[in-house]
Known about the structure:
By secondary structure, this protein is an alpha/beta fold. The chain folds into 3 domains: 9-52 and 62-87 and 247-325 and 469-534, FAD/NAD(P)-binding domain (3-Layer(bba) Sandwich), CATH 3.50.50.60; 119-240, no CATH class; 328-468, Polyamine Oxidase, Chain A, domain 2, CATH 3.90.660. 36% of the residues lie in helices and 18% in strands. It has 20 helices and 18 strands. The strands form 4 sheets. Strands 1, 2, 9, 10, 11, 12 and 18 form a 7-stranded mixed beta sheet that branches. Strands 7-6-14-15-16-13-17 form a 7-stranded mixed beta sheet. Strands 3-4 form a two-stranded antiparallel sheet. Strand 11 (282-288) and strand 12 form a beta hairpin. The two termini are 47 Å apart.
Amino acid sequence: MSTPPPSDVRVDVVVVGSGHNGLVAACYLARAGLSVEVVESDTVLGGAVSTVERWPGVRVDRGSSAHVIIRQSGIVEELDLAAHGLRYVDCDPWGFAPAPSPGDPGPDGRPLVFSVDLDATCASIAAACGPEDATAYRRFVEVWGPRSRAVVASFGRRPSPAGLIRSFWPLGAPSGGHPRTPGGELAVDFLGSGDALLDRWFTSERLKAALAWFGAQSGPPMSEPGTAAMVAWVALLHDVPPGHPVGGSGGLTAALRRRLESDGGRVVLGDGAARLLTAGGRVTGVETVSGRRIAADAVVAACHVDVTRRLAGDAAPPALADADPPLGNGFGLVVRALTDAPPSYPGVGADEALAGLQLLCTDRADLAAAHGDFAAGRLPRVPVPLGMCFSASDGTLAPAGQHVVTIWGQWYPYELADGGDWDALAEQEAQRLIAEVDRFAPGFAASVRETYVQTPLALERELSLLRGNVMHVEMGLASMFAFRPTPALSGYSVPGLAGLYLAGASTHPGGGVSGNSGRTAARVLLADRGGLPRARRTARRVAARLRRTPA
């Protein structure tokens, strides 16, 4: 057996990456009594869940803005993050979809407003799309609420057959006198496409387009198999809506850091991992870019699985060395705009349109066309925007009279078929997205004073999102649950290299702000260690104090 290199410091666990999953894992491990150090190459905490001062006095998110999944996971409550400074502004209404033709006085010219209040939502649907679809939506929420809660449960566990059975078996069992749900119906619904699900339930294309655009935020087009559950997540938003942390998305990771430090953990920015230290088929720590060696019993790689492979180098066992999950050809493009007014949509008040997600799509054909262009390596002929303006409800983001508007455009290829240069195309594409928002909110383009554009290439450079994929690995059915990132690596540990654990968007349940991956990785690590490290550590501290206390 080779001798481990000398170390500058020793901890129980090193976490590679200060993204929210890495910090969640670190918090659970430190809470259990382990000594934990998080190393991060960036000088900004939080990875894609971070906020910076982009313009004087203006705080702008670098990645995510609306937090959806983590608010359903229980992590915020389990770690008592409110006590460490996290405060969410509820996005309620959580969704808004404009009329196809602004100013059209007809029934189809009314906006759609999705509120936590199901009655208010159904009233909006009835006015804009008709009473039949309003009735169908109410029933949709009733049916898919329990199913979506089962998805939430499955996201919080290792993607093993036993875990999936625990999550979904109650759906097939009698409950409250209701007849057993046929397994075939469940299979059709869960394995089917979002589009097919929407077509079975609703008649209004406007309603279907809004729900499809919401579901598509996970990545795949709603025409793909297995995307039905992505659409049906809306059923949960009538219980707990998306939220935006006061002060920006980075409020979550800042609170996680404070929680970690309160339990004795440490975060080091600007000195990330350069390589894993290994000996005898197990990790022994990490060497950082500066050359500092940190000895540890375990390493949690909360970074892209491809980065983990590079850190392991020649020590990577076959399960890691041969891992080749689909990274895709980019994902989307973001415009961060500083404006002197928020978007103003005809026929709806700012309190209804700006609280949550502005789903600026009225026909699924636009989504299909944009994804078709993406698949061909082309820029979308007609971009489809999603808007957010949380400065309207959070005065800490910008000075009075100024607003931050985030415009997300999905399905922009990282590699363009015609060899186009993203640095040269960035401003052009930003202006096209702004123009699309202006089409629904006349006058918006004239309000824009500054823009910061994150192309797929810029996302890779700034946030280390390989190929600009904000989900790390494609979110199609073949890359989810026990297939993520590969079947051999789906258990959060690395066969053949003991002590190395995986977390982050490359692992189950995938991208988005959920924290589930970090929590599950921590649980797997603690189960492998066995015992009660907090109890042992507390006993050692008590014994040390007694030794120091004079008789």
